[in-house]
Design a protein that fits this description.
The longest helix has 4 residues, at 398-401. Strand 1 and strand 2 (8-17) form a beta hairpin. This protein is mainly beta. The chain has one helix spanning 398-401, and strands spanning 2-3, 8-17, 26-34, 40-45, 54-55, 63-67, 70-77, 89-94, 99-105, 117-120, 125-127, 130-139, 142-150, 156-162, 169-178, 184-193, 199-208, 214-219, 227-228, 237-239, 245-252, 259-267, 274-279, 291-300, 307-315, 323-329, 335-341, 351-361, 367-375, 380-388, 415-418, 426-431, 435-444, 449-457, 462-466, 474-482, 485-493. Among the domains are: 1-105, no CATH class; 405-493, Macroglobulin (MG2) domain (Immunoglobulin-like), CATH 2.60.40.1930. The strands form nine sheets. Strands 5, 6, 7, 8 and 9 form a five-stranded antiparallel sheet that branches. Strands 10, 11, 12, 13 and 14 form a five-stranded antiparallel sheet that branches. Strands 19, 20, 21, 22 and 23 form a five-stranded antiparallel sheet that branches. It is globular, with a radius of gyration of 24 Å.
Length: 495
């Protein structure tokens, strides 16, 4: 996903055909263009004779702007005649027409062995007129790393095989850069397998010369805390102030590999020092807490305004709610706020899972989120696009109008609403209590129920309510029923 001053651009997949039992699906890669009001401007199936069966690789796709609705993106192609292992690589697309303008196929090794494959794990990185990437070839008894360069005509002009390896360590090169003198910087998300079958996650900074000789290798010292990046297809590394790195990683249990908490890391330019490690939540207990934390994308905001990370919180219990999540992190790695989201109007446990795949800042300093959500009621996976203000609010200004400081107010009503009066059809509710189950209802002054829904609520979490647009202006009551207690607060609709 990406955006310009006029449109929001999304590449994704859509099921076009399937059997009556839901099997043998035909999935088409799609190019969608939306305006900032959420209206679909164009929708095109991506077709190209050079790369039949093209599909985005993984769930996070790097979409790099070239102007006028033209973007570069990574692809993974299904096997086809002459290419039994497929032919992934890079392509340039006109998002308004779905036309592929250029392609560059990644080199494929070990053609005789379909169990050995290639993958690109870093975000699209143009350095001047060269696109650089780190390519992993892996399979049974094979794990090889290459650095590759492509020119502006989409020709591969340089291939470097990297010979340095760590024993009993699986390295994924998930960030790469190149300076003016031709020196490469690489960051690896690595997994060390110990004798007792426990897993040690480490982050490694490497520097290579122009022909691939290793100049420096530095493992980030996290004081024996097991920290890694949650999946190497998640782009969670960005340059911060003074050439430091801001990494949105995860604290991981070494035995179960369970993610205990998302963590922001502020490091020195070459990993000699870890300046700060900030968890986003209190650690869960591995094997006891049934919550999984997934992190997908880290966006660097304009004007030195910090970073936004997109993520998900999932529970393994059917009746417990799942959330898409945004985290705000300062330039110094401090946690500033957390936003948890569910589709508007759904019961709290309706989503089987939610993934906030990518968050991007628009030219207007607002945020767009590309997400997918599994609808437990309809048993389908749906796309979800959100447009929020810079503070992660669907209603602009909610961050200043309603926040956790209100929880300290000594009032008999255990919730706040914003805005009040309401001029649109969306209303935030902030609860000061936690409850497994509660009911929220909107009444007119005659006692008629205008809207009602049940949900699980948590203390200091904001909930978005849909106020029917057909309701006339006037006075209404919001009623919250919790464990036999009833609380009300008046609101006014003034459109």
């Amino acid at each position: 996903m990406n955006s310009d001053s006029n449109y929001i651009y999304v590449i994704g997949d859509m099921v076009s055909k399937q059997d009556s039992d839901g099997r043998n699906k035909v999935v088409d890669p799609m190019a969608w263009v939306f305006d900032y009001s959420g209206n679909l401007v164009s929708s095109h199936k991506i077709l190209d004779t050079f790369i039949p069966g093209i599909r985005p690789y993984g769930e996070v796709i790097s979409l790099y702007p070239q102007g006028n609705g033209i973007f570069d993106f990574m692809f993974d192609a299904l096997p086809f005649e002459g290419h039994p292992k497929g032919a992934g690589g890079y392509a340039r697309i006109n998002m308004h027409t779905g036309a592929i303008l250029k392609t560059c196929k990644m080199p494929v090794y070990y053609l005789e062995n379909p169990r050995i494959g290639e993958i690109i794990l870093n975000e699209i990185t143009w350095v001047g007129d060269r696109l650089i990437w780190a390519q992993l070839t892996s399979g049974p008894n094979v794990r090889e790393q290459h650095i590759m360069e492509m020119d502006s005509s989409f020709n591969i002009v340089k291939i470097i095989k990297l010979e340095d390896k760590l024993n009993d360590t699986l390295e994924n090169h998930c960030w790469i850069n190149k300076d003016q003198s031709g020196i490469y910087e690489v960051i690896s998300n690595a997994l060390q397998i110990n004798i007792n079958n426990s897993f040690k996650h480490i982050l490694i900074y490497k520097k290579y010369d122009t022909i691939g000789n290793l100049i420096k290798k530095q493992v980030l010292n996290t004081s024996n805390i097991n920290i890694g990046i949650n999946g190497s297809l998640s782009y969670n590394i960005k340059k911060a102030l003074n050439k430091t790195f801001l990494i949105f990683g995860a604290k991981i249990d070494p035995k179960s590999a369970k993610i205990l908490a998302p963590v922001s890391l502020l490091t020195s330019p070459e990993f000699d020092t870890l300046y700060k490690s900030t968890p986003m939540h209190v650690d869960s207990q591995a094997g006891i807490n049934l919550v999984d934390y997934w992190t997908y994308y880290l966006e660097k905001q304009m004007y030195g305004d910090g970073f936004i990370a997109s993520a998900a919180i999932e529970t393994s219990l059917f009746a417990e709610p799942d959330y898409g999540v945004l985290y705000k992190v300062s330039n110094l790695g401090d946690s500033l706020w957390t936003r948890k989201f569910q589709p508007l109007g759904w019961e709290s446990a309706r989503a089987s899972w939610i993934k906030f795949i990518q968050v991007k800042e628009t030219p207007y300093h607002t945020l767009v989120v590309s997400a997918i959500v599994a609808d437990g009621d309809e048993n389908v996976v749906k796309g979800w696009l959100l447009h929020l203000d810079k503070d992660g609010c669907l209603i602009p200004g909610c961050y200043t109008g309603i926040n956790t400081n209100l929880s300290n107010k000594n009032e008999s009503t255990p919730f706040e609403v914003y805005p009040n009066p309401i001029s649109g059809h969306l209303l935030y509710l902030l609860s000061r209590v936690s409850a497994k189950q509660c009911r929220i209802s909107l009444y007119d002054l005659l006692g008629n129920i205008m809207e009602t829904k049940s949900l699980s609520i948590e203390k200091d979490v904001q909930y978005l309510l849909d106020i029917p647009e057909k309701l006339p202006n006037g006075q209404y009551l919001i009623k919250l029923e919790i464990q036999g207690q009833v609380f009300t607060k008046p609101i006014q609709i003034m459109r």
